[in-house]
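Practice problem: predict the structure.
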Amino acid sequence: MTNTDHRTLRRVLRREITGTIGLLTDEHDFRAMRRYDSFLFDNHSTYLKHVEAVLRARALQGGHTTVALFDPEDYAEFCANTGLDPDHHASRARFTARLAATGPTVLYEGQPLADLLPTLVDEAVRQATWEYATTLLARLGPCAACGEDLGRAAFTRASHLLARILDTSPPGERHLVCSLSGPPEALVAVLHADDIEGRTDLDETEALEFTTVLALGLATERPGGLVMRITAPGSPDRVHGWRLRAHGLQPLTAGEVFDAYCTDAESGDLIAPESNVDYCAPPDLGEEGPDPAHRH
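Answer:
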């Protein structure tokens, strides 16, 4: 076999190698990395332009690249725990490989970096929210009266309530938001559920995250709410809402939903209602399902 044949075969193999790049999304993180002499960039905008050029070149060559959020503090901790020199490109590569396996990533598909960045940040926030809510649920421990795991019971209850909401809602594209107030911080989870020929189609990861946040609200009785917006062809959007109450959901009236949507959450000022939107009382969720108690 000739050298040309060898080079051709290796090019074929290179096309099958996937890659991940760790991205410094903001100026603060970028400045933190400039402490290392081996990090050669001195301007964040220039750095982003070069990242985008590399991504485009790999895409043109048929390469499959994901982008991960590179956190300098996590990187320094990783190097300290593994004994790696943080001022070396190989250490950054090893940390990025770890991110590819455990952290949030976004597939580069030719989109502008300006569009990819907020998506990547949203993915990171989603994962952090789920991990935080999961930790708080686990810390609840067993019920002092009956011994049942409170976090698991709340998750079961939340799963049932979510299923009832989707089963009883009118058909269409459904956008659900569950929000909990702090302290120590507010939590928000989002779920998209499409109606496809009478079958609900949703992302399993989104559903897990949403159910976990809802379960935390049910178990801890944090102030919070759940809003569902339904979009269907040929009809106005419908908006429904519930308050989170002791281990359950309290439906909002149409007027309460209108007030919630047409009031600025921070200033309290009125906001003009959207056109072609109906603010409605939610559908009856029917039977209670799993025991909502632990009120003993």
